[in-house]
Amino acid sequence: NAGVTQTPKFQVLKTGQSMTLQCAQDMNHEYMSWYRQDPGMGLRLIHYSVGAGITDQGEVPNGYNVSRSTTEDFPLRLLSAAPSQTSVYFCASSYAAGSLNEKLFFGSGTQLSVL
Amino acid sequence: DQQVKQNSPSLSVQEGRISILNCDYTNSMFDYFLWYKKYPAEGPTFLISISSIKDKNEDGRFTVFLNKSAKHLSLHIVPSQPGDSAVYFCAASENDMRFGAGTRLTVKP
Predict the structure, then answer these.
(1) Which residues contact B58 (CB under 8 A, 6 or more apart)?
(2) Which of A12, A100, B85, B109 is deepest in the core (most CB within 10 A)?
């Protein structure tokens, strides 16, 4: 059982480049989300989705786009990378939608550096 | 504005003693609280949770206490073991899940 799979594990971008971080889960979870982890800031919510076709903004959505065309996949797009987006990104999923009283399952993370 | 706060960036305890990690929140609409544990180069993993209608939940060596009037929760680990050394994140949920900045726990043999 793969759980939550994130690719790539590491990525280096130049300022202004675009890229997509991939996230897939095989647990038939309705809820999926993206977080970034920065020193002293903990995990901050970027975007989340409560089901296919539905997305919403979290705490720090600027500079990122998401879509949810299938239950399994929730890619995160950086349209024009900036050094401030250097961070570790985590994708997470859960059974629950709406009021979230279920634990999140996390991927292993993507370390992104923007030069 | 962070709605979930962990004011202690680090904590060091001796093996066998109690570890107490603290967390404060500002949003009274949070209805579920969770603790996650994170090792280096891995994603966080769920540890223990508590509903807002309870004030205590216990699972083996781990106990979470919730004080709604003070908007405060804590995680107790008894006895602490070297393998518990990790970063611990407090989280709270309503329609989405918000995390604190984390506390790095070091358990010394």
Answers:
(1) B64
(2) A100
Distances (CA, A) of A44 to A54, B41, B89: 20, 18, 12
> In this complex, do B98 and A59 lie within 8 Å of one another by their Cβ atoms?
yes
**Per-residue pLDDT for A51 more than 80?**
yes
pLDDT tens-digit readout, A64-93:
999 999 999 999 999 999 999 999 999 999
Nearest-Cα distance to chain A for B32, in Å, is: 6
> Which of A35, A37, A90, A105 should we substitute to test contact with B (largest number of B Cβ atoms within 10 Å)?
A37
Task: Identify the closest residue of chain A to B95 by CA–CA distance.
Answer: A99
Phi, psi of B82 (to 5 degrees): -55, -35
Looking at the complex, does the CB of residue A97 fall below 8 Å from at least one CB of chain B?
Answer: no
Answer whether B44's CB lies under 8 Å from B89's CB: yes
Candidates A38, A46, A50, A103: best to mutate against B (most CBs of B within 10 A) is A103
Calculate the alpha carbon distances from A101 to A71, B3, B40, B101 in Å: 19, 17, 26, 20
pLDDT tens track, chain B, 109 positions = 689 999 999 999 999 999 999 999 999 999 899 999 999 989 999 999 999 999 999 999 999 999 999 999 999 999 999 999 999 999 998 877 899 999 999 999 9
Q: Would you call B44 helix, strand, or coil by DSSP?
A: coil
